[in-house]
Amino acid sequence: NAGVTQTPKFRVLKTGQSMTLLCAQDMNHEYMYWYRQDPGMGLRLIHYSVGEGTTAKGEVPDGYNVSRLKKQNFLLGLESAAPSQTSVYFCASSYRDRGRGYTFGSGTRLTVV
Amino acid sequence: AQSVTQLGSHVSVSEGALVLLRCNYSSSVPPYLFWYVQYPNQGLQLLLKYTSAATLVKGINGFEAEFKKSETSFHLTKPSAHMSDAAEYFCAVSSMNYGGSQGNLIFGKGTKLSVKP
């Protein structure tokens, strides 16, 4: 089925460890996004990309890096994980015309201990 | 700048009762408006959207929303709640006129709907 696939679905990290979350979409969407979701905070945009090779900061970028080497993939990296980064992470993608809405992945639940 | 306010972080209704989830937005340009639903341990799924056609928009699972420009509102309704409607609902706004970051969707903080038997 066409859509947005996130890997892994669950991960537990120790403070200071690094990891990369992978997002892949097969809808030929130009734009891709990384969000974190925390109770009572809604969705907060971490980084986004408007095309291959381009990325931009969102609302809460500190502690994260991203890369978009291929149009269909958007990677989110944590270089040195902190307990404050415990969250559920969602990837989304869209056409340039945001009126068509976003398609979301099923999320990655990350716990940093 | 655009913003979205969802009134009520939790709403509880009885099965068969009317569902009303409130969303107010601010936007200096014509908006796109969306409602998304998130079932437990899942991603967000598009429920319905307003993109300047009919002001009354029908979505999946019997939900609908009405765009009221004078009230800057886009409330979500369903005539009769079902147990399967229990989920978190997010309202979002974007701009029709902007590309890049200015066109990014802005999400409300969500309303968790509980349905009592």
Would you mind describing this structure in some detail?
The complex is a heterodimer of chains A (113) and B (117). Chain A is an all-beta fold and 113 residues long. Chain A has no helices and eleven strands. In chain A, strands 2, 4, 5, 6, 9, 10 and 11 form a seven-stranded mixed sheet that branches. A four-stranded antiparallel sheet of chain A has the order 1-3-8-7, with no helix packed on it. Chain A starts with a strand and ends with a strand. Chain B contains no helices and eleven strands. The N and C termini of chain B lie far apart (41 Å).
What tags apply to this protein structure?
heterodimer, A: 113 residues, mainly beta, 7-stranded mixed beta sheet, B: 117 residues, 6-stranded mixed beta sheet, 5-stranded antiparallel beta sheet, 0% helix
Concise synopsis of the structure shown:
Chain A is mostly beta strands and 113 residues long. Chain A contains no helices and 11 strands.
Alpha carbon gap, first and last residue of chain A: 35 Å
Q: Report the count of strand segments of chain B.
A: 11
Q: Low-confidence parts of chain A lasting 5 or more residues at pLDDT below 50? A: none
Level of helix content of chain A?
Answer: under 10%
Uncertain residue ranges of chain B = none
Q: Counting H and I runs of at least 4 residues, what is the number of helices of chain B?
A: 0
Helix and strand layout, with pairings?
The complex is a heterodimer of chains A (113) and B (117).
Chain A: E1 4-7, E2 10-13, E3 19-25, E4 31-38, E5 42-51, E6 54-57, E7 64-67, E8 73-78, E9 87-94, E10 103-104, E11 108-112
Parallel strand pairs in A: 2-11
Antiparallel strand pairs in A: 1-3, 3-8, 4-5, 4-9, 5-6, 7-8, 9-10, 9-11
Chain B: E1 3-7, E2 10-14, E3 19-26, E4 31-38, E5 44-50, E6 56-58, E7 64-68, E8 73-78, E9 87-95, E10 106-107, E11 111-116
Parallel strand pairs in B: 2-11
Antiparallel strand pairs in B: 1-3, 3-8, 4-5, 4-9, 6-7, 7-8, 9-10, 9-11
